[in-house]
């Protein structure tokens, strides 16, 4: 058989291939020749063939058939064969294949070999791919080599010990005696690997960390080594861009960070050396910046002095002026982590941070935006909002939603005046109206409603903002709502804050009719406009007939939502005209945090109005029966069914019991089976319990402070709290208000809460206040649950939560059994 081609010739041949198919053909031909050579037990060229196989493996072609040949090379007495064999084992084998156990004895023999280079090969292989079984068998040999005087073997043994500790943490104490003298070594390679080993031991075991802090006095040794590195002169062997062994310095700084965390004595011992590193390190080269960055992280993580922390933040401030984008990004990320603890120090670099908003790099721009919002306070809110509004005007679309939300939150928290607050939010809606989140419109409407003295000014500003431009739908919705509420103030021209404009009733109606027929208007916006026109029938005096005509036209609209509104408004004109002025009177001041008292702020069909607590369909519309049955399976258990929040009046009376007694014949508590579902159908003369309380007396009693709230769910940053109220008119009714909050850094979207109770109860869910749970606990979702408990049994509930978070769909089930006795007795 002719001699196989050399590796160099194979590489040259493969590189001449013009297409992928031609390369595959060459590889397949060579693999066939290598297989034939392996079958013939050709010892002469085994090393060459395995080397070629490894090259093919690096190109992505299968090479598993060479695994046993690697073991044969490892067992060879030649160093050249062992070198290729161990390299092949590291590339082709891992602990998932049982073949690797066959080489345990070979590695053990080589660890005791007389040649240091063979020992080094065995250490490298064990440290790279040794399984937990191999590590247990060979840990003793590694520990012996860790105590040897040979620097070449000690550094490899230290790294191998790191791998052994990761695979078998209980063997950590075996290496403890060997670590005592490691830091006295002068060889930088041994020092570097020793610090890596000590770091691994400290991170994995709190007991080891305490031992090194107190018994071994590790911090003074590390401080001494670091000081020698800083103060030593030029050493060509370790110099990198004028800095002595920056890799070792970085490793020592990381270990100091672990040792100093939450420990006053250790932190005190390293304060001086950290100050020296921060002031003596050259910043003109990237090497120096790497050391300074690690120094900053260490200062921020230990219990350092305030002056040292200011020095660290100033270093990050200098990083922001660096031309390297990576360094600027690192600085912004680090400042964002420290802004809560060292706010004033970070504030000194506010102008530099704001300048980063103009950076071309989108990642730097995003970090700068997040940091800018973190720096906003009552003293700088005007200047910062000016910069952020300018950024909102010019930034890419992917930034607009987050930027607008941040401006809304900052303006609400730090607004110097209500006029400034309203102007700022209107500027956001004008600039990025299509990108703002759904809760922006009701929040602004609430702000305007509560600012009684600003009504005339606001409606005039909004009227001018939408003249001829209906592209920003949230702005148009707010404007339509305000014109409907305060149209009389707009026409009267009673604005004191700025020069009033002269507007006639017909001109106002022209604008709203234009919104109705505009192609840019969404269904929700048209609903706002039609309702606003209807409200103006009680604000205007000369155009009532025109309003009647407009409303009647949309009674035949193809938009079902718009048609329903128009039909109801027509009925209001014809049958209930005596009630129209009372029904359409001006909105009262809204409370910021609503509770389920006699009235609550509910959002129906895009219109925010006060309404009595009543049965409402879910926001997403009713679902088919098959989807409801799917939900039964998802909630699990044969004795639980979910309650779907719907009570349509169009269903026959026989179905009412099915909606109110959704748990059927299953009894979770073991009590005797109740009557069939039809028995719970309310009679026409007696309204169902969900509508109880629409009489003149208060809906709920005033002793709810005696019912403690509970935490029903707390997991993955999502927290669900239940608060309770009892009905005056029907003591068997318990009203539970859920509040969902989110402590993570990202919003939870598409949030859906579902609940199920045993069959002896009746339950109804009202619509939630939103489908987005804001991040950082900046807001909550509220939803009302009504439970009828006629037998006064202990309340039990199973809940199901679904939402999207960080791009993933989340789903969880939980059971709530800790209801306070006052809520059901």
UniProtKB/TrEMBL annotation:
It is found in: Cytoplasmic vesicle membrane; Endomembrane system; Golgi apparatus. It comes from the Eukaryota. Residues 602-630 are annotated as: Disordered. SMART domains: Alpha_adaptinC2. InterPro entries: Adaptor_Complx_Large_Subunit, AP1_complex_gsu, ARM-like, ARM-type_fold, Clathrin/coatomer_adapt-like_N, Clathrin_a/b/g-adaptin_app_Ig, Clathrin_app_Ig-like_sf, GAE_dom. Pfam families: Adaptin_N (PF01602), Alpha_adaptinC2 (PF02883). Residues 705-820 form the GAE domain. It is a peripheral membrane protein. Transmembrane segments: none annotated. Keywords: Cytoplasmic vesicle, Golgi apparatus, Membrane, Protein transport, Transport. Belongs to the adaptor complexes large subunit family. This is AP-1 complex subunit gamma. It comes from Galeopterus variegatus (Malayan flying lemur). The lineage of its organism: Eukaryota, Metazoa, Chordata, Craniata, Vertebrata.
């Amino acid at each position: 058989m002719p001699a196989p081609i050399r590796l160099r010739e194979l590489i040259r041949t493969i590189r001449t291939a013009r297409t992928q198919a031609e390369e595959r053909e060459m590889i397949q031909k060579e693999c066939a020749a290598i297989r034939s050579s392996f079958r013939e037990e050709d010892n002469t060229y085994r090393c060459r063939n395995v080397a070629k196989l490894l090259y093919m493996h690096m190109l992505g072609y299968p090479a598993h058939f060479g695994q046993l040949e690697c073991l044969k090379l490892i067992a060879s007495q030649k160093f050249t064969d062992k070198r290729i064999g161990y390299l092949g084992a590291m590339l082709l084998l891992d602990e998932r294949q049982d073949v690797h156990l066959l080489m345990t004895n070979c590695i053990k023999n080589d660890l005791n070999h007389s040649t240091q280079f063979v020992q080094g090969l065995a250490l490298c292989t064990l440290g790279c791919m040794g399984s937990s079984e191999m590590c247990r068998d060979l840990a003793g040999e590694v520990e012996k080599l860790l105590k040897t005087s040979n620097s070449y073997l000690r550094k490899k043994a230290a790294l191998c010990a790191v791998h052994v500790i990761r695979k078998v943490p209980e063997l950590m104490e075996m290496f403890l005696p060997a670590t005592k003298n490691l830091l006295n070594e002068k060889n930088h390679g041994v020092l570097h690997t020793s610090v890596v080993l000590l770091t691994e031991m400290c991170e994995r075991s709190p007991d080891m960390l305490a031992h090194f802090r107190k018994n071994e006095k590790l911090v003074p040794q590390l401080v001494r080594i670091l000081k020698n590195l800083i103060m030593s002169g030029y050493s060509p062997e370790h110099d990198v861009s004028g800095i002595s062994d920056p890799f070792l310095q970085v490793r020592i700084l990381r270990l100091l960070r672990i040792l100093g965390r939450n420990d006053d004595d250790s932190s005190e011992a390293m304060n001086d050396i950290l100050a020296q590193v921060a002031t003596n390190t050259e910043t003109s080269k990237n090497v120096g910046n790497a050391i300074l960055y690690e120094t900053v992280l260490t200062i921020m993580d230990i219990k350092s002095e305030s002056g040292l922390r200011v020095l660290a933040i100033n270093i990050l401030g200098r990083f922001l002026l660096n031309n390297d984008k990576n360094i600027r990004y690192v600085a912004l990320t680090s400042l964002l982590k420290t802004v809560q603890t060292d706010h004033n120090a970070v504030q000194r670099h506010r102008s530099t941070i704001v300048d980063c908003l103009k950076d071309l790099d989108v990642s730097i721009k995003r970090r700068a935006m997040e940091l800018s919002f973190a720096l906003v306070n009552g003293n700088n809110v005007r200047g910062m909002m000016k910069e952020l509004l300018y950024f909102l005007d010019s930034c890419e679309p992917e930034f607009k939603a987050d930027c607008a939300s941040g401006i809304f939150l900052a303006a609400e928290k730090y607004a110097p005046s209500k006029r400034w607050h309203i102007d700022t939010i209107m500027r956001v809606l004008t600039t990025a109206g299509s990108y703002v989140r759904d809760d922006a419109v009701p929040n602004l409407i609430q702000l305007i409603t509560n600012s009684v003295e600003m009504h005339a000014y606001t409606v005039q500003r909004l009227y001018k903002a939408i003249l001829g431009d209906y592209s920003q739908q949230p702005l148009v919705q707010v404007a339509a709502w305000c014109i409907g509420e305060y149209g009389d103030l707009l026409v009267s021209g009673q604005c004191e804050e700025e020069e009033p404009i002269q507007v006639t009733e017909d001109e106002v109606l022209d604008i709203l009719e234009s919104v109705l027929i505009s192609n840019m208007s969404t269904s929700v916006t048209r609903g706002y406009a039609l309702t606003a026109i209807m409200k103006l029938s009680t604000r205007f005096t000369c155009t009532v007939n025109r309003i009647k005509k407009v409303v009647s036209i949309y009674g035949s609209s193809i938009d079902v939502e718009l048609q329903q509104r128009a039909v109801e408004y027509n009925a209001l004109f014809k049958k209930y005209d005596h009630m129209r002025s009372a029904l359409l009177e001006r909105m009262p001041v809204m409370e910021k945090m609503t509770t389920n008292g006699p009235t609550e702020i509910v959002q129906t069909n895009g219109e925010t109005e006060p309404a009595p607590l009543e049965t409402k369909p879910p926001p997403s519309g009713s679902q088919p029966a098959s989807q409801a049955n799917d939900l039964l399976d998802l909630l699990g258990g044969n004795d639980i069914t979910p309650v779907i929040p719907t009570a349509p009046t169009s269903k026959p009376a026989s179905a009412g019991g099915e909606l109110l007694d959704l748990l059927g014949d299953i009894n979770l508590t073991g009590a005797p089976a109740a009557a069939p579902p039809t028995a719970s159908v309310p009679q026409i003369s007696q309204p169902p319990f969900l509508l109880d309380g629409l009489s003149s007396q208060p809906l709920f009693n005033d002793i709810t402070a005696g019912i403690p709230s509970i935490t029903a769910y707390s997991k993955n940053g999502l927290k669900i709290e239940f608060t309770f109220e009892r009905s005056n008119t029907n003591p068997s009714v318990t009203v539970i208000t859920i509040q969902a909050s989110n402590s993570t850094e990202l919003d939870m979207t598409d949030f859906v809460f579902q609940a199920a109770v045993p069959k002896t109860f009746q339950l109804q869910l009202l619509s939630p206040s939103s489908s987005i749970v804001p991040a950082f606990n900046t807001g909550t979702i509220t939803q009302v649950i009504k439970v009828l408990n006629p037998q006064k049994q202990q309340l039990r509930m199973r809940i199901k939560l679904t939402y999207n978070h960080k791009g993933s769909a989340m789903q969880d089930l939980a059971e709530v059994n800790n209801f306070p006795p006052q809520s059901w007795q």
